[in-house]
C-alpha cells in the first residue's frame, strides 16, 4: 500500500469512489427537494424542516447529510408552482397579501411587519398570514382583538437573537376568512435580527408601505 493511501490507519477512499458517492448524494438531495416542494405545494405544509423529513421518509432516505437546504427546496417549490399552479397560485398570493395589508393597517399602532410564505410569494393552499408586532405589551394586542370580538388562541413561541433564545407570544385567529398568526415581540426587538431557529436565517419582512407596493403590483381578480 502506498503512503498516500494511508490515513489514520485506514485505507483512503479512491477518488472515483468519493466522486460517485458525492454524485449520488447530490442526486438524492435533488429528489428530496423536489418531493418536499410537492408536499408544500399540494398538502399545504409550510414548514421546510417538516417537509424535507417527510419527503426523505417517503423516499426511504435515512442519511441526514443528504437532506437539502431550505434554499434548494424553495427553488424547487417556485418551479413547481410556476409549472403546475400557474393560474391559481398568483391569485392566491395576491388575495392573501390584500388581507395581510388590511390587517396591518388595522394593527398599525403595533408596528406590524409581514413575513413568511405570503411575503415570499410561495404560500400554499393552507398558508397562514404571518405578522410580527412590536407593541408596548401583549395585553394591548389582546384588548384590541377583544374590543373587535375577534377570538384567538395563544401559545408561546421562541425566536433567537444570535445564540440567545427569546420567548414570544403567538396569537392565532381568522382575519377576513384567512388564518392569521401574530408573533408579538418586545418593542426593543424591532431592530434586532431575529431567527426562528438558532441555526436558521433571519427571515425577510416588510412593513405596510412595502406590502402596499406588492399588492399594487400583484395580478387583479381573474
Describe this structure in words.
With 222 residues, the protein is α+β, with helices and mostly antiparallel strands. It folds into two domains: 13-84, no CATH class; 88-217, Beta Polymerase, domain 2, CATH 3.30.460.10. It is built from seven helices and eight strands, in the order ββααααβαβαββββα. The protein has helices spanning 15-43, 48-59, 70-84, 88-106, 117-120, 138-147, 208-217, and strands spanning 6-7, 10-11, 113-115, 129-133, 153-161, 164-175, 178-184, 205-206. The strands form two sheets. A six-stranded mixed beta sheet has the order 5-6-7-4-3-8. Strand 5 and strand 6 (164-175) form a beta hairpin. Helix 1 crosses helix 2, helix 1 crosses helix 3 (70-84) and helix 4 runs antiparallel to helix 7. It is globular. Residues 1-11 have low confidence and may be disordered.
| Average pLDDT rating | 85
Count of DSSP E strands? 8
CATH superfamily of the largest domain: Beta Polymerase, domain 2
Q: In terms of structural class, how would the helical and strand content be classed?
A: alpha+beta
How many distinct helices?
7
Profile the largest sheet: 6 strands, mixed
Q: Output the CATH topology of the largest domain.
A: Beta Polymerase, domain 2
Strand content bin = 15-25%
Can you tell me the overall shape?
globular
Rg from C-alpha positions? Answer: 22 Å
Amino acid at each position: 500500500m502506498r503512503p498516500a493511501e494511508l490515513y489514520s490507519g485506514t485505507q483512503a477512499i479512491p477518488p472515483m469512489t468519493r466522486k460517485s458517492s458525492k454524485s449520488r448524494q447530490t442526486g438524492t438531495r435533488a429528489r428530496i427537494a423536489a418531493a418536499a416542494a410537492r408536499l408544500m405545494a399540494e398538502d399545504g405544509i409550510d414548514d421546510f424542516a417538516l417537509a424535507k423529513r417527510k419527503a426523505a421518509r417517503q423516499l426511504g432516505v435515512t442519511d441526514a447529510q443528504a437532506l437539502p437546504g431550505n434554499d434548494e427546496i424553495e427553488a424547487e417549490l417556485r418551479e413547481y408552482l410556476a409549472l403546475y399552479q400557474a393560474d391559481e397560485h398568483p391569485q392566491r398570493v395576491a388575495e392573501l397579501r390584500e388581507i395581510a395589508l388590511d390587517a396591518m393597517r388595522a394593527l398599525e399602532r403595533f408596528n406590524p411587519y409581514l413575513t413568511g410564505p405570503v411575503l415570499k410569494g410561495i404560500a400554499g393552499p393552507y398558508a397562514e398570514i404571518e405578522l410580527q408586532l412590536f407593541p408596548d405589551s401583549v395585553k394591548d394586542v389582546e384588548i384590541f382583538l377583544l374590543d373587535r370580538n375577534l377570538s384567538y388562541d395563544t401559545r408561546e413561541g421562541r425566536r433567537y437573537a444570535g445564540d440567545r433564545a427569546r420567548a414570544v407570544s403567538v396569537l392565532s385567529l381568522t382575519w377576513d376568512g384567512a388564518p392569521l398568526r401574530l408573533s408579538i415581540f418586545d418593542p426593543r426587538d424591532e431592530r434586532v435580527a431575529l431567527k426562528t431557529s438558532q441555526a436558521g436565517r433571519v427571515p425577510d419582512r416588510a412593513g405596510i408601505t412595502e406590502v402596499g407596493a406588492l399588492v399594487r403590483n400583484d395580478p387583479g381578480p381573474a
